[in-house]
Amino acid sequence: MIKDLLRRQHIETPSWAYGNSGTRFKVFAQPGVPRDPYEKLADAAQVHAFTGIAPTVALHIPWDRVDSYEDLAGHAASLGLGIGAINSNVFQDDDYKLGSVTHPDPAIRRKALDHLLACVDIMDATGSATLKLWFSDGTNYPGQDDIRARQDRLASALEQVHERLGEGQRLLLEYKLFEPAFYVTDVPDWGTAYAHCRALGDKAQVVVDTGHHAPGTNIEFIVAFLLREGKLGGFDFNSRFYADDDLMVGAADPFQLFRIMFEVISGGGYGPHVSFMLDQCHNIEPKIPGQIRSVMNVQEATAKALLVDREALAAAQAEGDVLGANAVLMDAYNTDVRAMLGELRAEMGLDPDPMAAYARSGYFEKIAAERVGGSQAGWGA
User: 99: which of 6, 103, 120, 347 fits an S-S bond (Cβ 3.0–4.6 Å)?
Assistant: First the structure.
């Protein structure tokens, strides 16, 4: 039964993870990096080929702008992929220095809203069902702008986007504690995102970026609450030590990832209605192996969460057996699931060791030799 559930798992990779990235101060170039969205999809197809559970790719607009999105979707299909979430970008234009949809200037707000609506057009063209919204909007100084007025502007923009969505489409609203706004961020936490999504209606849900929290935040509580309210739409999986570090998921605190997946499964969130997306910059590690390892990390955490003895846990909880209940969770977490996952991959016709299989494939050597010249993709391209 556990293998059947794992076989149906779906983890979405982000197109931008295949481009050059870096720290806040430097972008580091690597050989073989894609030069356009078509080459990004080719790399994503490798991740799916070796893991078997990464069949969709999220796009970022305008980083992934092309002349024909129908053609891009067709190219993805030819590689055995689909187009996942469409991510908007209203944070890399000079006009957005003081905000986008919450900017005090109505002309700037209109420009930002037009971009969001254009992203819905791209959803229509590619068959995407999800629009993911993150706003860098906020202020740096007390008195800089009216906090309540900015919330009104945000609500108005979200309402217009929500009305534009078609049948089977939804928007996911992402929150972030800080950066680049350091005094007030207009969507700083899950409560703010939840309040806006609840006001909008059924097509609006919250996305939880696991790196966008203060140290010590109990993310699994947030997950449990949003699931209870029917407002958890998906995850941007990554790891953090300090803030929005965008490290590989499961790298900093694999036990936290296990706890999150336990709540997802317990709350009925393990299915297509909750998206498992990666959002990682891969600052220094190779791009494709980094994605493969991240997919495997989520898969391992999920397998351990599925191993929890629910009956024993419920019995211990009902009896007030604090240590017994905790032991049930720890027994599952301490189980080595790698052999089981290797068997599962073999049953799916895959190599039991995706990392080693990719290293032997020669794909990196091939793209490093072929992708010479042109402009490599990266932040902003």
Answer: 103
Q: Among residues of the chain, what percentage have pLDDT more than 90? A: 94
Q: Are strands 56-60 and 11-14 parallel, antiparallel or unpaired?
A: parallel
79 neighbors 42 (Cβ within 8 angstroms):
yes
Give the model's pLDDT for residue 380.
62
**CA distance linking residue 322 with residue 36, whole number of Å:** 54
The sign of the dihedral angle between the CA atoms of 381, 43, 253, 266 is: positive
Position 242 pLDDT exceeds 60: yes
Contacts (Cβ under 8 Å, ≥6 apart) of 339:
none
Residues 66-79 have a mean pLDDT of: 98
| Distance (Å) of CA 271 to CA 7, 28, 47, 183, 234 | 12, 36, 21, 37, 10
| CA 115 – CA 259 distance, rounded (Å) | 37
* Cis amide leading into 180 (omega within 30): yes
Identity of the amino acid at 196: H
Confirm whether pTM is higher than 0.90.
yes
Question: What values do phi and psi take at 20, rounded to 5?
Answer: -70, 145
